[in-house]
Amino acid sequence: MIFIVFGALVIIGVGAALFAAGQAPTQITAQSATFTPKPAPDFKLKLFSGQTIALKDLKGKTAVVINFWASWCPPCREEAPTLSKVSKLYEGRVKFIGIVTNDSQADALSFMKEFGITYDNGIDYYGIASKYGITGIPETFWIDKQGQIVGHWIGAIDEANLTSRTQKLIQ
Questions:
Q1: Region for 151 from its dihedrals, namely left if φ exceeds 0, alpha if ψ lies in -120 to 50, beta otherwise
Q2: Residue 69 in contact with residue 107, Cβ under 8 Å?
Q3: Helix or strand run (H / E) with residue 67
């Protein structure tokens, strides 16, 4: 009898674990009750254009949207047209920066051409993703003019959320 009860408990436990594993990932957003703005870690990024950009040089001048991505990442491919479109809508008002992780320059440039991405991008050779606590890609951060991270999104972002969160940076 004890083996039947134990077996039933094991089956129920495995079933519950499988059900929980199939749930959609949680999105971390600026509206999260537990989200607290914090200073954005500074970094220097060598851009594909050959120039170098430093986050500290943008502080006090412009708000920034940072997106961590790779060409081989399906959710990155899903959100790429949205990032391209929204970055053009905010050109001159918000600085978009793409940080390529675990990818080659050739593949990244091909990806950018495919999706019409014209905002600044470069490969993370110096551990920027680690400074930002990236656990997967894509991840997007919103940084206000004072250099504070005021929003964070994990996973592919849709146009409505990208636009509304970016708009809040300039209000």
A1: beta
A2: no
A3: strand 63-69
Burial of 19 (0-12, 13-18, 19+ CB in 10 A): exposed
Q: What is the pTM of this model?
A: 0.80
Ordered DSSP codes for 51-106: -EEEHHHHTTT-EEEEEEE-TT-HHHHHHHHHHHHHHHHTTTTEEEEEEE-S--HH
Give the CATH number for residue 147.
3.40.30.10
Let me know if residue 7 belongs to a domain: no
Say if 6 falls within a structural domain. Answer: no
**Measured CA distances, 56 to 42, 62, 71 (Å):** 6, 11, 27
The Cα–Cα gap between 143 and 157 comes to 16
* Domain span at 114: 26-169
Tokens 């870690």 locate to: 41
For 28-74, how does the pLDDT look when each residue is reduced to its tens digit (9 = 90+)? 333 334 568 999 999 999 999 999 999 999 999 999 999 999 999 99
User: For the chain, how many structural domains are there in total?
Assistant: 1
